Amino acid sequence: MCEANAYLLKEGREELLMESVDVIEPEDERTWRLVGIFGDRKTVRGRIKSMNLVNHKIFFEEDA
Amino acid sequence: MCEANAYLLKEGREELLMESVDVIEPEDERTWRLVGIFGDRKTVRGRIKSMNLVNHKIFFEEDA
């Protein structure tokens, strides 16, 4: 399975937002909807900083 | 390996942009940098429409 973990970068730290994310979709300009492999959902406010699929990591950061 | 294929949604069609994408990073507000598993690079202008990691698909769409 190729799901990834989503992290929020906050003051230099990686804060785990959600494990086993399957789907990432924009909800609006600054909000992202995450859907996990079990159908669990979470909304993240911020922007995508980077995604590294081979390492299964997605990083969000809060807007400046 | 958990890389994905990147597509551009254009007039209802899926146009393959790049295979085996590992890293996705914003270059600016409307431009994304894709890096493939072999280090190949591509820049995409548009926004992320959706990502489905389990299905290895990333969809971009051009700005309206």
Helix and strand arrangement:
Two copies of one chain form a homodimer.
Chain A: E1 4-10, E2 13-28, E3 31-36, E4 41-45, E5 47-52, E6 57-61
Parallel strand pairs in A: 1-6
Antiparallel strand pairs in A: 1-2, 2-3, 3-4, 5-6
Low-confidence spans of chain A:
none
Q: What is the domain tally of chain A? A: 1
Measured distance between first and last alpha carbons of chain A: 34 Å
Largest interface: A-B, 20 and 20 residues
Give the averaged pLDDT of chain A, no decimals: 94
Q: What shape does the CA trace of chain A take?
A: globular
Residue share in β-strands of chain A: over 45%
Major β-sheet annotation of chain A: 6 strands, mixed
Give a nutshell description of this structure.
Two copies of one chain form a homodimer. Chain A is an all-beta fold.
